[in-house]
Write a structure and sequence with these properties.
The chain is mostly helical. The protein is built from 12 helices and 2 strands; from the N terminus they run H-H-H-H-H-H-H-E-E-H-H-H-H-H. The longest helix is centred in the last third of the chain and has 39 residues.
Length: about 270
């Protein structure tokens, strides 16, 4: 496996630079795929949590099965906004420009949203949630999870978003440190399971999880009044800001100062 310094050099000099140079088409297509992959993880988490009574076990099961989303993104290959926040490390090292980073972030974020809505809509067409007003247990779980997310206050979502993406970007770092597929899977599994089980907020995951609940509510006519699109946007905005600030400081900046910058200074 790579050392922490080697991982930071990989992020700064290779991974982020390659991401910055992707064409619009590559970012768009890979962004859609990432939104769908994270959506698959979310749907699997909802399935795992359905009809599970002990709260702790329910959360851990949801977290364990949600990990498949980031595994698909990293191992199969896709562009995920929350992972690309690590491009800040390369910006701090002046290997990429602010314009290059923002171009990647904006395009990938928008197409993550497209992919997320696409998989939420496709799930609705499967009737796996039920039909008409006859919502099954999976459908009820989906509505409950979506409603719990929109019911949170802006500040709570923001801080949950900060803590969430620190763990997500640590999962990316651990995956980069591993030399084998098995190592990458293990590196991804535990940080992602942790953030989901605790109840932190991931903007891209919520781009599919909340619309799944909204779509089921619209199709069935059943669901709480608090579950609405205004609440969705409040959650997405707060989670996105938190997803940037958290790892932007505690992961990208701290590791840049501790490893990459220190290493370069020692050479001079």
């Amino acid at each position: 496996m790579k050392t922490p310094l080697e991982v930071q050099k990989t992020i700064v000099e290779e991974v982020s630079v390659k991401k910055a140079k992707l064409s619009f088409t590559q970012m768009a297509l890979l962004g859609i795929l990432a939104g769908m992959y994270i959506g698959f993880g979310g749907i699997m988490a909802l399935t795992a949590m359905t009809q599970v009574e002990p709260y702790g076990l329910k959360k851990v099961l949801g977290g364990a099965f949600f990990t498949v989303g980031l595994m698909l993104v990293i191992i199969a290959g896709a562009e995920l906004f929350t992972g690309n926040v690590l491009m800040l490390t390369s910006l701090y090292a002046r290997k990429i420009s602010l314009r290059q980073m923002l171009r990647n972030w904006i395009v990938v974020y928008l197409f993550n949203f497209v992919g997320s809505l696409l998989i939420a809509w496709m799930l609705l067409q499967t009737n796996l949630w039920g039909m008409g007003q006859n919502i099954n247990d999976f459908g009820k779980t989906a509505i409950s999870v979506a409603n719990s997310k929109v019911a949170l206050g802006f500040s709570a979502i923001f801080f949950r978003g900060m803590l969430c993406n620190i763990l997500v970007d640590l999962a990316v770092i651990l995956a980069l440190a591993a030399d084998s597929v098995e190592g990458k899977i293990l590196g991804i599994f535990f940080p992602i399971m942790t953030f989901v089980a605790i109840g932190f907020e991931h903007s891209v995951a919520n781009m599919s999880l909340i619309p799944i609940g909204l779509f089921i509510k619209a199709a069935s006519g059943v669901g709480p009044e608090t579950l609405n699109w205004l609440g969705f946007w409040k959650n997405i905005i707060a989670a996105t800001l938190g997803n940037i600030v958290g790892p932007g400081i505690f992961t990208a900046l701290f590791y840049y100062l501790s490893y990459y910058k220190t290493s370069n200074q020692s050479k001079t």
